[in-house]
Amino acid sequence: MNLITNFLKRIPKKLHTLAGVQPQPNTQPAVQPWAKPKTKIPKISKKALIVLAVVILILLLVKAVIPFFVRTVDQIINKGQGTAQASPTPIISEPKDEPVTFSWETYTNQRLNFQVSVPSSWERKEYEPKSATTNQATVAFDPKKLPDKYIFARSYYAVIVTPVGVKEEFNKHKNLIESIGTDSITETFLDGIRGADTGSFITVEHKGYIYELVLKSVRSDEGKFVYTQISKRVISSFKFLDEQNAPNQLGDIRIDDGNVVGVDQNGKKTVLINKSKFTGDGIKNFSEVKVSPDGSLMCFIGNTDSPATFLYYSDVGGKTPFRITGGKNCVWSHDSGKIAFNNVVSDVSPVDVFIFIINSKDLKNITRIVGGEFIRFYEIPEWSQDDNFIVSNFTAFDPSGTLQSYTGSSAINATTGEVVDK
């Protein structure tokens, strides 16, 4: 570049030499009419430049980051306000291990004098008292496999039954009753019996025994602890059995190691229905034996390796057992002449209410024609006091997915099969 510049400067001299004229040195600088006067720019120190660069960088970061945080906070606030406006009722997040339940069945424990509704697919296990001094019996329910030895944990649904003679447990119950109205302890009623509700379990005293119903609760959007939907169903279905089946009775009939056994007043067990004799029918064990109100017959359920279960009945001595059909939720009529139950399904098929008549061996489905576009999943049937009607709750499901599911209750005429939705 310098070479080119020097060459261009020498051109005028060459031209004058060729013309015989010596060039005169230019002592006055050429002033262009459009030229601006030169301004002296002050020199900026290196330190000042570094400070300026840092300030600019900080401003750029602030400009980029602050709007992000403002948008994020605004979204959170708007989301919370939108939820509250959309639903004034607290929205409850059910535990992940507690799936939506359509099928329920009645668990009856005659020895401990109670029955309760539980999801059909859940495992249930009765734990014997740890020691003779406490004599505390526990029945646990859970969608997952239960441990062989019961470890008290709030993660299980459970019914704990303790004699009032166990001073420690009785004092705990008494203190809770006296604390009703304070420390988040509220008054509640379990099958008409007054008790205390702690928000995680309910305790009542009945016929010389303390019943503790262990439940699940979750925190609502308002920060309060409320029971899950399954917990509410368990509470509403809990019932004490009649006087003859109280826990302190002289003898009872129960399930032991999958067999139906009788226990006399001395604690001696006699096998009434042996599971090993029914392997040819595909039965691996029995569960949920229920004695008729007149004490002459018993109904029990045979379990298989599949979800299918079968209903049987016999006299209380275990003679001439009769296989009714596939089903669950065996419920005796008050006159001991009929059994109401539900069928078992393994797909999205209706769960109906059936009646089996003991004397004639007649079997009929009394809800098969109801539902319309919806498939109904009927739950545990209950007999009216005069045995003329059966009442059963249901969940209605649209198989096309177009219409929203809903719940209801039906009163069913046991003779005509007429169904009236409440």
Q: What number is the mean pLDDT?
A: 77
Rg value: 41 Å
Largest sheet: 7 strands, antiparallel
Which outline best applies? Answer: extended
Strand arrangement across the biggest beta sheet: 3-4-5-9-8-7-6
Please bin the fraction of helical residues: 10-25%
Give start-end ranges of low-pLDDT stretches.
Answer: 31-36, 68-97, 243-250
Characterise the protein shown here.
With 422 residues, the protein is an alpha+beta fold. The protein has a domain at 102-241: Protein Transport Mog1p, Chain A, CATH 3.40.1000. 19% of the residues lie in helices and 34% in strands. The chain contains four helices and 28 strands. The strands form seven sheets. The chain has a seven-stranded antiparallel sheet with strand order 3-4-5-9-8-7-6, sandwiched between helices. Strands 24, 25, 26, 27 and 28 form a five-stranded antiparallel sheet that branches. The chain has a four-stranded antiparallel sheet with strand order 16-17-18-19, with no helix packed on it. The longest helix is centred in the N-terminal third of the chain and has 41 residues, at 46-86.
